[in-house]
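Hey,
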Amino acid sequence: MIDNYITGSVIKNLRENKKMTQEELAAKINVTGKAVSKWETGLGFPDISLIEPLAKALDISVIELLSGECIRNKNKVSNMQKAKFYVCPVCGNVIYSIGETIISCCGITLPPLEAETADTEDSAHKMHVEPVEDEIYVQLNHPMTKEHYISFIAAVTDNGIHLTKLYPEQTAEARFKRARIKSIYAYCNHHGLFVEKIMGKI
């Protein structure tokens, strides 16, 4: 099921950004200029079979075309500190990316999570991080009930992400190899994403 279909304004904006006329776009996807004109004025929609050729002609991905957003990844050097986390509220799926993208799960377009640092008074989301030989041990004094729990704890290094998925009735804890870790993230299903910067602390 497609929740969003291509609108005429999206086609027009993308076409004009490519400095193409309606006839030039039409020629690339083997339709008439009149057909493109109808799409752009809201008098019709491109057939589903034309979505992929249309996206190719406009030099974007199919998902960008359907969403109406043109994504350009500015994180070209893959700086892991710019990694983004996404959590599906329906199935609990956890996804991360190292740059700009559009993520969909269970028919929902997911927003990137905004991480915050737990206040000193917020004992439930404050991460306790300590070195144990060649690892670091992360623990939170957080309830782990079926309704309210920590969904995952992740360690972000300068070259990767290591994630431990957690479930209700487990302990909110994780262990990671100590080398090169810069930040630790923990996600609460009620209060969102929290971060603890540990670079230089351990």
